[in-house]
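#data-curation
PF: Archiving a pair of folding outputs for the training set. Convention for this channel: one message per protein, sequence first, structure tokens after, nothing in between. First:
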Amino acid sequence: MTTTPTLVGDTYLTLKDKLSQMEGGKVTSTVIDLLSQTNVILEDAVVKECNDGSGHKTSVRNGLPTAEFRQFYQGVKCSKGTYTQIRESTAMLESYSEVDKSLADLEADTMQFRLNEANAHLEGMNQIVQTNIFYGNKNINSSAFDGLANRYNKINKDKTSIGSKVIDAKGKGDENTSIWFITWGELHTQMIYPKGSKAGITHENLGEVTAFDKDNKMFQAYRDHFKWDLGLAVRDFRSTARIANIPTDKDGLANIDLIDLLIDCYYSVNRYRKTGKTVIYVNETIQAALHKKARKDSNVNLTISEYEGKPIVKFLDMPIKCCDQILNTEQKVTEAA
């Protein structure tokens, strides 16, 4: 089934839009619905096909051209901006599902039964993708892609540094969490997929196969293969920001002003996010704390309203969404040396 895509900024398809246009029948359509129920990033992430095979080359401007005042019959020097070229990589995430053929054949809708049995595989992939968007680190797992926390990993007052977009909530130790302001867009943060492939999960029905039980005895089964090739690219680090070192213990959380931190983060990205869509991502601990503030404190910056047909807490014009993969056990982010 093909749906009319929703555009971000009237231009770019989100990952959910791309997935909903995939072909493959009922099973694939149901996969999309299952994933979007538990992966809020699917609703927001802009996707871009790689321009360099399995990787994506992009240029980040780090210097502006110069200009000069001049007089009649006096020239000026030619100048140009300076750029750094970055190549972002993609990763391959795969899973196989098998169900006993005799059991599946008892069902009126064999394909739906197979998908139901594959739900654990799909949810596992879903959680891995969300975790990797925030915490992926190629230095730890070279098969994965670098996530946001591995990029916004130091606090730095230098405005030309990515560390200037890391705001310190002053938590200590290893019981901290983060709030993320992510701006999705062509010039901002985007998900990428290999050139010539499809965005999102692809499903292949491998049909009937001979499978083996734990004792290496054979039985007939239906096998399905799920594959998700993806990466993350940050074109303009200034439009995405992190509030780090938010203490998650009851006393620590009570002693910080979340609204002040949100305001600081808002102004950190606001000038640079105009052509994208900014969404705030938090975990359940922070979402509950903000909801209580919106309900009790009559804070004009926090409101409870509808977003895409659902009630949601918003900060100014930005929806606040819950992502379970944002940890409560983050190590303290320190200042750059």
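PF: Second:
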Amino acid sequence: MNRLDVIFGKPGDTAIDPVCKMVVPKADPPGGTAEHDGETYYFCAPGCRTAFADDPSQFLSV
């Protein structure tokens, strides 16, 4: 999968990294995933996942 596939893939195939706001493929997110309040979040890199895990409320709108 290349960057254009990620950007122009089918609806629902991608997610937005809540930390850096990059488009991430749900099938194979480079930074992995994390669960919070029953929701799965997808990350572009391990650093974004770690930052989210440390304080999810900082990255989620209320």
